[in-house]
Amino acid sequence: MPPKTPRLINNRQDVNSQCLDAGTTGTRATFSQDFDWGTNDSHITASRGVDLQGPGPQARTDSSADPPATAAQGLDFKADDPPLDDPQTGDLQTNYEALLGRRAWQRLHGDIRRRFGCGYVHRATCYRGVMQDVSLSFTGRLLAQLCRLIGTPLSLHQGRDVPVTVKVYPDRRVGGLCWDRFYYFPGARVNRVRSTKCICRQSGLVEVVGGGFGMCLKVTERQGAICFESSRFFWQMGRCRFYIPSLFTPGKTTVVQTALAGGRFRFELEVVHTVLGLMFRQSGIFTEVETAADQ
Question: How far is CA 194 from its chain centroid?
C-alpha cells in the first residue's frame, strides 16, 4: 500500500505531533516545524525550547516563492519503490552504511559516521556556519529564479562569508529527512532552500524538491569524506516517474562533507552542466550547535 500523501492541517504543518496519522501512538518526534503560509514569516522551534534563530535580529524569510507544503508534498512513491522509512508507523530505517557498504563506511571519519549513523535519523539537528563562497554563473542565476516556481531549491544570490543555518529533521509523513537551509545574504531577505532526502528500496537515495522534481544520488567515500553525486534527475507525478535527459537538468551535482578538527565539517557543492559548465558552487564550514534527541 503506497504511503499517504502529506496533508496540510489548517494551513499549518506540525512535524512533532501531526506527522503520523495511522492510528499509532507514542510518536517520538521532538522537533516541531510551523509554517504559516498566509504570511511572509516562517519559523522553526524545538519542542524543548532550543534557540534555533539565525544570526542577528529575527529576519523575514523570502517565503513568497515557497510552495504551500514541504518539498516532498504530493510525492507518491511507486508501489515497487517505496521509502525504506515507513511513514505509516514512523519506523525510520534509513541506513547510510547499507548504501555505502561496510568497508567504505568504516573508512569514513568517525564524526561523519556519527552524523549519518542510524541514530541520526531519529534526531532534529541544527548546524550553523559560514559559506565562504556562494557562486552562481549567469545561467545558474536565471535557473535559480526560474526554480522559484517549484519552491526555492537553489540559492538565489551569491556572495562571500555568508552566515548559514541548516536545520535537519525527520519527516515521517513521507519517510525521510527534511533539510532546511537559511542563507543570510547582506541586504537581502533570508534565502530559504529546502529539500527532502529519502532512501527507496529500488532507487536508493533520492532528494526531492517542489513540483515533483528530484534526483537520484550515489553515495561514496572519498578519503574519509562522504560524497553525494547525482546520477539521474526525474519528475514524478503520482506513481509515474519520468527521467529527464541530462541536457535539460541543472547539471551533475556533487556534494562532499569532510570532517575537520573540533567537530566541524566542510561542506562543498558543485553543479556542472554538460554544455554550460559550472552553474553553482558553494563551500563553507559548519558545526553542530543543538540536537533534540528522541528519548
Answer: 6
